[in-house]
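Researcher: Let's try something more involved. This one mixes different molecule types, so please make sure each is placed in the same coordinate frame as the others.
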Amino acid sequence: MNTASKESHFHHAHHFESAAHQYSSAKQGVWLFMVTEILMFGGLFVAYLIYKSLYAPVFHVGSSYLDVKMGTINTFILITSSFTMALGIYFNQKNERSKAIIFLAITILCALGFMLVKFFEYSHKIHLGLVPGKYFNNPEFVQKVVDFATNMQATSSAHQDIDIAALKKIAPLYFGFYFVMTGLHGFHVIIGACLILWVTIKTAKGHFGPEYYTPVEGVGLFWHIVDLIWIYLFPLLYLVG
Amino acid sequence: MAHTETHSHDYLNHQKGLWSWLTTIDHKRIGIMYLIVILFFFLIGGIFALLIRMELFSAGPTLGIDPGTYNRLMTFHGAIMVFMVIVPGIPSIFGNFLIPIMLGAKDVAFPRLNLFSWYVFMLGAIIAFASLLFGGADTGWTFYTPYSIRQPNGVIFLVLGAFTMGMASILTGLNFIVTVHKLRAPGQTMSRIPLFVWSTYATAIIQVLATPVLGITLLLLVAEKTLGVGIFDPTIGGDPVLFQHFFWFYSHPAVYIMVLPAMGIISELIATYSRKTVFGYTAIAYSSLAIGAVSFIVWGHHMFVSGQSEFAGIMFSVITMLVGVPTAIKLFNWIATMYMGSIKLDAPMLFAIGFMFLFTIGGLTGVWLATLGMDVHFHDTYFVVAHFHYVMVGGTLMAFTGGLFYWFPKMFGRVCNDGTARISWVLIFTGFNVTFFPQFILGAMGMPRRYFDYLPQYESLNQISTVGSWLIGAGFLVALFAVIHGLLRGEKASNNPWGGTTLEWLATSPPHHENFEKTPIVSVGPYEYR
Amino acid sequence: MYSWLNINLANTFMPVEGTDLAGSVDNLYIFLLISSLISFIILIGGMTAFIVKYKRRSANDKTAYITHNNLLEFLWSFIPFVIMMVIFYWGLIVYNEYRTPPDDAEEIHVTGRQWVWRFAYKNGYAFSTKPANDAMVNVPLGRPIKLIMTSGDVLHSFYIPGFRNKQDVVPGRYTYLWFKATKVGQFQVFCTEYCGLEHSNMPAKINVMPAAEYDAWFKAYVPEASAGGLADRGKELFNERGCTACHSVNGTRIVGPTMKGLAGAKREFADGSSGIADDAYLRESILNSGAKIVKDYPAAMPIFKGQIEEEDVTALIDYIKSLK
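Model: All components are placed in one shared frame. Result:
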């Protein structure tokens, strides 16, 4: 990290000894915040895994109701966006402002694309009544769960104690998890998009350069974690079943 | 106009006007802002406590308080004290004010984030109080399901308020961790920082790791109430005990968030008022980390009779016994510090001694509750209420008040009247024991907690307890008087009125806007009384 | 000497022991009390002695520079650790007794509801603690009893201080508690998991009778044949579902309005409106009590929507209509 160039307006804050000092502190702060995000989603994952082990048929049938194509498209979109985000940081570091703006803008578009696919997925489910709890309205889903469980009972001696009545009651819980987990994640995608917009504007205004690009990198880190959480969500919800 | 003052640039008069305070990024001013609002919340929570004890003065309704109101008072007393006073209290007030100065730094790592945290905290408090406009909440501060799912929407506001205040707690913790890692003065290794910083650092780690789990738990509770997701509600297949596991996974470490900073204050007070180097500095420092680590794996000791498996109960009981060891170590080291010291019983030291007395009782009774065969009788009785008030009030609040009188000269440049502060101590210490010791006995006699009414055989002890609460109230009012009188009429304070050795006593009283004219260089440990 | 200490000290504060297990618990209690007292005296006594002995004499006192002592650190870590392991183990032994009911324990089913307990015996005898305020849970002296418990709504907890025994009562599952009473007499039961408005008012009493007397009572009971009509089913439900906790059928006011004379009457509501208590009103009030609150009564009734079958609602309405 060089000291401030004569063109930049960057001065490190007075309580830090140097720009490098401020930079490493800021990174540590962002990492700590990411740990809290991972722990928060972690709690959700734990709850999901507990119920999945208790009510396997519900989760098996439930995941078959998710659109793997759309999920795969979204995974591809997010991974691409992580790459374009990294390029956005890279070009800021190299002081190539217009390239940085392009890639940051593409990242935002990817985020919007992700949310658009989400919108289609959600509206389709809402249309079919596959929604959490008291608004759930899809008897066919419940029947499929019952059929699957009955089949398990018939074909495997290990599954004699399946409680069909309990499964019927709890079937909508699958969509409770689906909407809460993907919804909370989607909320973070939106926040991420806003943050990327913020650093794009700052890039356009010339606030960043080789001597100072901390906010871009910090936002990039946030974005990578949002991507990472999806990388866990996607197989857990869509593929394991 | 010529300036003749020599300290015209302290942080209090560096800038004037309300707006300069509301937009400050000075950690000292932010600490003062937390002090003002937290004292206000403490007043409200305290009044609710007095009302609760009034209602319990005699069997049957007293003072026209009906069960619905009583249950709301009980809930808000708990929620206010936990989320608005004891969890944020010492870190956000004394941590904010002192940590940078104790480290020879100019501010915390992220000053703007610090101000943002204060606003998030205020927003959370407002949301929590807004609950009262929607019927309030009567679930207890623990929000157990399915009762909390069935109750009206006031609950959602209190839950979201707690969530928001949790966010502020996370951001403060994050700020402190980076500050301790990155902003220590030249020469100040981790083995040369004050023990108050060690304990607040351990607290910050717990805040960052545990609070997110509270966050997701509360969000899931709101989802359960609004959407009927089915995760905690047994009528749609959920598990109410799962809520308890999630809730206590945060809330047990939370009690160490509440007490570790207090223990840090005690280390400072004992060292200064014994004028002696702390015995076992390394042991005390590491014990804070050990307590923090072990605190994450004991949550099930709140759930021995909840329906959780016997095996889980056994594991949680034995590990809870483990966490008692580093806690006891601190007490032994403090007393060893006093050995052959030169002890002065100024008010702050009285509060430290009060802490040791009361926290010992609280801690020992904690071991009783961790004992499986004993907890079945005592769980959910007044014995538990007595235990946690001994550690929270007898522990944390004692340390808080002692710290307030101790650092008052540093923060405000004036001295409080020691005699008045001592009177407040006598009232608080006596009142506390009169209020809460009978509650151990009530618990042994079988009186359940959260009871609006009780059988006649419990009445006399309840009456004694209520009288004690008046003494506590009087004591805190006297303390408040001492503080206000000190602010308005106190003598000017020197830089180091108590003879402390940590870095804050090198700064002026009150400190310069940037704490030190020149960054100090540290070459010795923090308690070099030689 | 220990048992003397136990009886005298324990009974000063603890309720009279009703089982042998209570006696074991009290022994543990005394051990904890004495060891805590000794620890406290050593610690706080030591501290007080130091405060007196090392009082500051002058403003320039010099103190010894003692930074640490590893042996001491080890000793005062290891010794408390050992003591706490002993305490843990003793607690484990007592706990084991709590959680291993004998195979021949007689079972009684307990259902907790806001704010009433219902007990059902194997011989068909069943009763609720409200409004029959003097009904008691009969149990035989000297024979193990196992309570199989569940909740009909929210968390409750069944606590018998005299037996030093409690267990949470959880909706959606069964929990159990067992005891063997060794003293004839009555033993108080409290609900001890916060459950709302009347949490402090859902007591019960265990009535320990000599075994022969209990057997006679048990055999003598013949369950009433149900007349089979809808209103009779409604009356059963009215008792089973805990309505009796708050609503009388004889005109008295408990928490909510009495059911006597309700059907067809005019009602004034808290918001100033009024209406007739017809079938639709009765149905709405059962399923969604918050919709209309009667003037001068608290909004305390739980919501039963989703928790009661349609035909049961019909039966209840029929029963209410029969209460003229």
